[in-house]
Amino acid sequence: MHEMVKGSNVSLSALSENAGSVVVGLGWASPSGEGDADVSVLLLGADGKVRGDTDFYFYNNPVAADGSVQLLGKTPTESGDVDRIGFDLTAVPADVDRIVVAASRYEDARFGELEDLRVTLDDAAGEQILQFAVDDADSVSAVIFGELYRRDQEWKFRAVGQGYAAGLAGLATDFGVNIDDDAPAVEATALEGGDPGDGGDEADTTPAAASAPAEPVAGTPLEAIPAPRRSEDGSGADSGKPSAGRPRTAKKKVTLPKTAKKSLAENESWSPARLFPVSVLKSDRDREMRATSVLLSVMAQVPEFGRRLTAGFGAPAGRMETFTEVTLPHGDTPRRPDGVIRVERAGKLWTALVETKTNGNALKPDQVQAYMDIAARRGYEAVITVSNDVALEGSPLVDVKIDGRRKHKVALRHLSWAEVAYQAQMLIRHEGVGNAAHAWLLQELLHYLQHENSGCHGFQNMGAAWVPVRNGIDDETLCQGDPRALEVVESWERLVRQVCLRLGGELGQKVLPVQRAKRGADPAARRSELAERLCTEGRLQAELRIEGTPGLLAVTADLRTGRLRTSFEIPAPEQGYPLSWAKRLVRRLEEAPADLHVETLVDGETGGPRGTLEKLRPEPADMLPKNSATRITGFRLSLFKGMGSGRGNAESGFIRSVDDAVHRFYTAVVVHLDGPARRASTKERVAAG
């Protein structure tokens, strides 16, 4: 892998022969687990400006119509988060000279609060070919990590690392984007501020911001940073005149699906006719064949869905065709992968072999190895495995041997059925697709995947080590260093990632497991440490970050007591009186369960007053410390429930109990809390810079 320094550049073709399609990852770590940033991409012409406002890609404009750019979203890693962007460089218009890749924070947040800022670039085979660490972004709210640019008909990458104090709006304005983001900010805290009912889209009738140019951080500015745009007639970025169709840097509100139409069935026993029936599935082979055909056919017919599942694997944007039960030669015994995906663009083909498993069946290493060998010989780009299992970073589901003598590289990729369902949910319930027929196809796919007969239920077995480890903790015979504890920790991590997918698909918001910087970056070492703690403390713990909420949702499974604890910490407001905070919190939780535990967090002590919501409702003052001089730092809300004992996903199983506990806590408690402070307008952010 090529390590870069600030200001250096490198030709992509010198690093890889598979650089026609690349994935750029912007990563960072947060010591608290709560820090975050948003990525953005700008396509620039030879004059250093965007050709139009649609050349600005960010959270409200994530995909290019020609498929050249696609924001793929955040992925949790062992050292924090990586926000990935897929680029099909063969599809970038000829009049685009450079592609700027940046990230921004909002409100008063600065990049100096984050750690390990870095940009990586993976080629189409999934191999990381370069890395650049940004180590001097302290007081800035936006950073240009790097840029892709053309030279002599080839693409190069430059490590930029340039900071901006004016945030996303200022950065975009400097590159010629007209920003329409001058809605008044609404101050909000966890317990005081505006009503969360008015959150969401800001009115579109506000004038455009008359933003001053963003000033780069002190230092020698790189050539990549252009001057602010001014049009010949004095209009443009600094004129204050609104223009139609301007990008808005305030995130759009995501609405949940409307109530289903009333059924015309004579009684509830009538089952609607389905495009993909599941009643005839009788064997694992039937389930695998049907699931493969259903998935691949919908991918080919719904471009948004097919592109979403393959863009992160290096596939270009183009015409997609899918096939099942294809026979391919392999020595004396021909092989029949479950499916083949082919994407054609500009006369070039991208091909992936597909191997699926359902009903909890494990992938077979020898089978996957054979497909990797076939793909390498035939010049195919990838092998994609699909199963109920969830892949973990640094812990591949299948170990395969790569012949280093082969010039052509093949990427091994994995999808869980839970991730497939998540992407379908996001499109049909929150983001939308091209037409009603495509939405109906995705709805039929989702119904099929969620049906009990399909065998596509996602991760559903904690493994053979689950029961022995539970028994060992219960009778205190589990010894440190027992390899079974490590197996349970890995299963727990898979379960947490799946819980995030399911909740995120339902809400239409990003839900990610938190990886704190202090836990280290080595996956094996981190999991070993967690396994040791499981042996000594008997607990499994995780934290989830849910977009739009004021904190982290913590989940603790105490294997000694057999109880699950879901909790949420709310910071104390910066202004007001403690009694007002307590009363407001009780009012906000009017519809929360009576058995909700409320604990007051105080400075310098192990804990403050605590009690159930049922007892605190008539007397909110009971939440306050007896010593009025004690400083309240926040409140912790917790729900407890018994956890399932079985290793599977049955009603009495552990997996089902964790999923239900997180869902109940979010819907019964978190939804009643105020979200984080809304983003300030462009003018305010520029002034603050």
How would you portray this structure in words?
The chain is α+β, with helices and mostly antiparallel strands. Helices cover 24% and strands 24% of the residues. It contains 14 helices and 24 strands. Strands 18-19-20-21-24-22-23 form a 7-stranded antiparallel β-sheet. Strands 1-10-9-3-7-6 form a 6-stranded mixed β-sheet, with no helix packed on it. Strand 20 (552-558) and strand 21 form a beta hairpin. The longest helix has 25 residues, at 483-507. The chain is globular and about 75 Å long. The two termini are 36 Å apart.
Spatial sequence of strands, sheet with the most strands: 18-19-20-21-24-22-23
Number of helices: 14
Unreliable stretches (pLDDT < 50, length at least 5) are 181-245, 249-256, 677-689
Number of strands: 24
Class of secondary structure makeup = alpha+beta
Give the mean pLDDT. Answer: 81
Q: What is the alpha-carbon Rg in Å?
A: 26 Å
Helix content: 10-25%
Oligomer: single chain
Overall 3D shape: globular
Task: Tell me the major beta sheet.
Answer: 7 strands, antiparallel
Instruction: Give the percentage of residues in beta strands.
Output: 15-25%
C-alpha termini separation: 36 Å
Main attributes of the structure:
6-stranded mixed β-sheet, 24 strands, 14 helices
Topology, please?
Blueprint: E1 2-4, E2 9-11, H1 12-15, E3 21-29, E4 38-44, E5 56-57, E6 69-77, E7 80-88, E8 98-104, E9 115-122, E10 128-134, E11 142-151, E12 154-164, H2 167-174, H3 284-301, H4 303-310, E13 319-324, E14 339-345, E15 348-356, H5 365-378, E16 382-387, E17 411-416, H6 417-431, H7 436-450, H8 466-474, H9 483-507, E18 511-513, H10 523-537, E19 539-546, E20 552-558, E21 563-571, H11 578-588, E22 597-602, E23 610-612, H12 613-616, E24 632-642, H13 654-668, H14 682-688
Parallel strand pairs: 1-10, 15-16, 16-17
Antiparallel strand pairs: 2-12, 3-7, 3-9, 4-5, 4-8, 6-7, 8-11, 9-10, 11-12, 13-14, 14-15, 18-19, 19-20, 20-21, 21-24, 22-23, 22-24
Helix pairs in contact: 3-4, 3-7, 4-6, 6-7, 6-9, 9-10
